[in-house]
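Severity: low
Component: inverse-folding endpoint
Summary: output formatting inconsistent between runs
Steps to reproduce: submit the following structure tokens with default settings.
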């Protein structure tokens, strides 16, 4: 009998815990946080989860899908940030904690949590959209936003550092929490407080755990090769390595704690061990009592 895929495990998980949540009479929105290294399949999984839940709860519950990537700063604001932190190579361009528009993120999450829209003209939830191809790959926010009816009952939020927990300076972290990472770590506190560590948010967590974080280099290279074959444009293998190198200090400092903690979701967390082929070799669910 073939092993279940990432998507199949994820469907089984949400189909168990979503009904349990709403059967208690809960009226607050339920978040589904999906976290995994770049290239692990989190975006693909999140999209199929969204389609699955829309079909399952058609006419009964409103479902939304967004990515932390859609909340990146505008191109102009990123240039300002890069100038302000000109000596910090980790903040030169989008990607890491600190390169997102926290005001827009806070506005959207407040609207979801309060079961209302976030625009004045009509009661709609407007979600930002980000185009990574603009400005020769530097990216910029799209002029149009995704418009959704409210209230939102279930919202899927995915991202490569969802669930990372900022750490305090101390002897156990001195080797990693230094230099450019000090600024990134300080900014990460805001993300956790707003989302996965927010006591007012009810959530399920799905964590994709690579058997080795070095897989990110292979996965991102594969993605770029696919992009080149389709569009004729993309990064060279050397450029991919340099790109991933910029993210690697975060993986080194936070990723293992996320996986071992098994507490991304405030209700329950599914942790899937995956190999280089993205095949699931372990599955564990931890419920928070």
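Observed output (run 2 of 3):
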């Amino acid at each position: 009998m073939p092993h279940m895929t990432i998507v199949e495990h994820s469907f089984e998980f949400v189909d168990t815990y979503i009904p349990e949540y709403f059967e208690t009479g809960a009226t607050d929105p339920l978040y589904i946080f999906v976290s995994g290294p770049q290239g692990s399949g989190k975006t693909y999984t999140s999209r199929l989860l969204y389609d699955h839940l829309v079909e399952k709860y058609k006419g009964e519950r409103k479902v939304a899908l967004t990515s932390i990537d859609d909340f990146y700063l505008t191109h102009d604001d990123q240039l300002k940030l890069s100038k302000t932190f000109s000596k910090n190579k980790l903040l030169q361009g989008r990607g890491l904690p600190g390169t997102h528009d926290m005001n827009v993120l806070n506005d959207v999450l407040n609207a979801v949590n309060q079961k209302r829209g976030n625009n004045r003209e009509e009661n709609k939830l407007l979600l930002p959209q980000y185009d990574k191809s603009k400005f020769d790959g530097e990216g910029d926010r799209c002029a149009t936003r995704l418009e959704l009816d409210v209230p939102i009952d279930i919202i899927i939020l995915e991202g490569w550092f969802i669930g990372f927990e900022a750490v305090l300076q101390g002897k156990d972290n001195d080797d990693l929490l230094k230099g450019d990472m000090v600024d990134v770590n300080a900014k990460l506190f805001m993300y956790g407080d707003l989302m996965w560590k927010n006591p007012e948010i009810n959530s399920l967590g799905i964590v994709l755990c690579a058997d080795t974080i070095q897989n990110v280099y292979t996965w991102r290279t594969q993605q770029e090769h696919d992009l080149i074959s389709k569009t004729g444009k993309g990064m060279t293998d050397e450029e991919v390595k340099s790109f991933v190198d910029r993210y690697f200090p975060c993986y080194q400092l936070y990723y293992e704690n996320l996986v071992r903690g098994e507490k991304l979701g405030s209700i329950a967390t599914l942790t899937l061990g995956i190999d280089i082929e993205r095949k699931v070799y372990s599955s564990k669910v931890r419920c928070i009592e």
